[in-house]
Amino acid sequence: MKYSLHSILFTFLLATLFWAPLPLGSNRPWAWSLLQISIFILMLGCIFLKKDEIFLGLKKFKTVISIWLVFLIFATLQVIPLPEFIIDILSPKANFSSDVQSMFLSTDVGQSKVSLLKSFAYFCLFLCSLILINNEQRVKKVLTLMLIVGSLQGLYGILEILLDTKFSLIFNLPISEVATGSFVYKNHFANFIMLCLSAGTGLIIASLNNNQSMSGRDWSRVIISSLLGNKALVRICLAIMVIALVMSRSRMGNTAFFAALTIVGIYALFADKQRSKGLSILVISMIIIDLLIVSSWFGLDKVQERLVETSLSQEGRDEVVIDASVIIADYPLMGSGSGSFYSVFPSYKKADVYPFYDQAHNDYLQTLIEYGFISFLCLVAIVLLCFTSALSVIKKRKNAMYKGAAFASLMAILGMLIHMSVDFPLQAPANASYFIVFLALALISKANVSKKSRSRTSTRIQNGH
Fold it and tell me: pTM for this one?
């Protein structure tokens, strides 16, 4: 029964990940509510698993989990009524009513409660991923699901443009001249495709030949196999997603993907002393083929033109960043309240910022404003621990599947960090959910590798070596 429940919950996790991007990236109240309900059901199911399977299995991740809990505690403090003297100490400029029983650290308690519920859902998704993705077969299934979902999204986005449809098939929303898939905002779509491309790249990395001593004929065989052999379907899916990414006309979405692929690929080539020649061929071929051939056919030149011709000053986003930075000084420790940027920023913006900005177009800045330095540092620590875990897996190369998952996680994390500097990709629940799964995969890959390594060491000791 235990194994059956574990399998059912894992299948439900896959179904949740499949569903997440479909209803506008889950970026509507009803859509993210359904996603949260699904995640909480998952968490409830995991609690019914045997105690040793949940709590003992999570011990190896206790550092990251503890930091995340600290973040949730500080986020919860924002929506709890506090005495006036505590408000004065933690956040003197926080707005509060004359009623001493209604003083809050958040300047927008309603939105902060909504954001807090999302944060708890993301934490539960993180725990469920650590619990349920417990072997390399399941790691492969998760990456494969992401590849399939990204390919379907990419194909849908491409067809919308090529068929010149005016309204989306499901929600009957107007379609512009750029690919958006089931998302509304092109940059959210591009970021999601980048995450799925990371998963597909990780799958190919996991399937590479580990033999280092190959002849010239073997080299040719690896090239043909990588492009046309048993990996052909994966490469076709990657090509579809690259085309969709470029057709989204998202400058930073394209930049984030190609930069992440190049940087992580170069790191793998130099850090992995036992790398196969197939890895070198794969990284080089993906960069050349995707960037110079496939992309050029489907509008990369237009993306390049926008990168060259459009400056931050033309869009007004630099003024937003400058004006919004002042908010940090007023709410340095605890922030203005999660989800409060849209209500706080208008009182800080100057006359030359004309559009209404409900997001800061910089997730780093917005997180600092809304959560404060303490919570921001907690999030930085979580991502950094996951990132370094994936780096160590690439370097040690203990298992092909886990190495591929680590490569995918590195790409996803680095790509997200790049994109966050000029946009708000994590504000889309579907993107945030996939990103959290990648964080979990980075830790899972490290933990399983370490376990295998310890097992081999123990065997050698028992044999007297």
Answer: 0.89
